[in-house]
Specification:
By secondary structure, the protein is α+β, with helices and mostly antiparallel strands. It has helices at residues 12-23, 27-38, 90-104, and strands at residues 3-6, 43-49, 52-64, 73-81, 109-113, 125-126, 132-134, 144-148, 159-162. The protein has one domain (3-168): 3-Layer(aba) Sandwich (Aminopeptidase), CATH 3.40.630.30.
Length: 170
């Protein structure tokens, strides 16, 4: 059985290991650590099977450039599952739980840069539909998506979505 819970301090190394193995590089784990250290509000969930952390999802603040009055949303990045545990629904469970928790916190929107055939099944839509652009050049339109959790915010969500600066650091 898969248990989903919030990350704890003692999980940090296991979370880094999951991300390193899933992405076959250390960059995602380093970004997570830097954002954690910044003290901003995050949502970091782990998936556990048999007392082992096998998956992780991370949400951190994002903002709309030139939209000073709009409440920050969250960016889903990264999400990782150990290679031996992929294709078992763990990522789906992490995403669904993360969305539920963010709704309870009244987060107005979530953005994600991901696979066009995967994220729409959770309710993500092409961000350009709302006049929303990714901060990075060259991102395919269909890969940059948004889920608006507060319908009253739909007319206000447009412009350039900006992830935390840690995503741009080397």
């Amino acid at each position: 059985m898969i248990e989903i819970r919030e990350e704890r301090r003692e999980d940090y190394q296991a979370v880094r290991d999951v991300n390193n193995q899933a992405f076959n590089q250390p960059q995602e784990g380093m970004i997570i650590e830097k954002i954690r250290e910044s003290g901003v509000e995050i949502l970091s969930l782990v998936a556990i099977i048999d007392n082992k952390i096998v998956g992780h999802i991370f949400f951190s603040p994002v903002r709309m450039e030139e939209q000073a009055t709009l409440k920050d949303g969250m960016g889903l990045a990264p999400m990782a599952v150990l290679p031996d545990y992929q294709q078992q629904g763990i990522g789906s469970k992490l995403i669904k739980e993360g969305i539920q928790r963010l709704k309870l916190k009244s987060v107005p929107y979530i953005i994600v840069l991901g696979h066009k055939d995967y994220y729409p099944k959770f309710g993500f839509e092409t961000a350009s539909k709302y006049g929303l652009k990714c901060q990075w050049d060259g991102v395919p339109d269909e890969a940059f998506m948004v889920m608006i959790l507060d319908d009253k915010m739909k007319p206000k969500i447009h412009g350039v979505a900006k992830y935390r600066d840690e995503f741009d650091e080397e």
